[in-house]
Please model this.
Amino acid sequence: MTSPIETILGHEFARADLLREAMTHRSALYGRRRRRAGPSNERMEFIGDRVLGLLIAEWLVERFPGEQEGALASRLAQLVSQPVVATIAKENGLGDALSIAPNEDRAGVRRRATVLADALEAAIGALYTDGGLGPARAFVRRVWAKVVEEQQEPPKNPKSVLHEWAMARALGLPEYAVETHSGPPHSPRFVINVTVGGLTGTGSAGSKRAAEQLAAEDLLRALGAPVPRMLAGS
Model:
């Protein structure tokens, strides 16, 4: 019988252990005696991250045959960014399928963007490992269709805009620095500052890259510079 998560993924697994691994958060591996019970989804997430990048890159080359590498890379970075991946995971119910330790679940871990994004990438890794690129490609193109359609022009991210703005005014390169790094390994929190022309912007997020983008956005506003319009959820 097809499980609910197999219905979401559109694939009946020959190896159910792969899907179980993909849907196991690291917190679920430890009981009261802190004894390891099996693999978490980290290995499947490692594979899925690479497979997702390949499949989106392949799709973009097909969809935009006249675009050069820089524009395609900008599109790719947006489409595989943590906020976009986490939003797609949430919309497709991946969070509900995760096995998470009760105490972590009560703390809201299931709803965190980092956890949701990792779960979706792990699911893609399991799809690829079990069935190859075909099932993984079919799933990715189905659930990413909306955001790909919304991406009419190659997006510019706040870091790129800040870099161009500062260099055009001979202010030097933006300088990024980690202000604080807190939280457990599965749910980190970074606060990052960026400085240009004597002004500083600050961003806080679950990854250094996302925090840097938010810091750049904050500084662009302080400088009165244009802030790029990104996709919803990015």
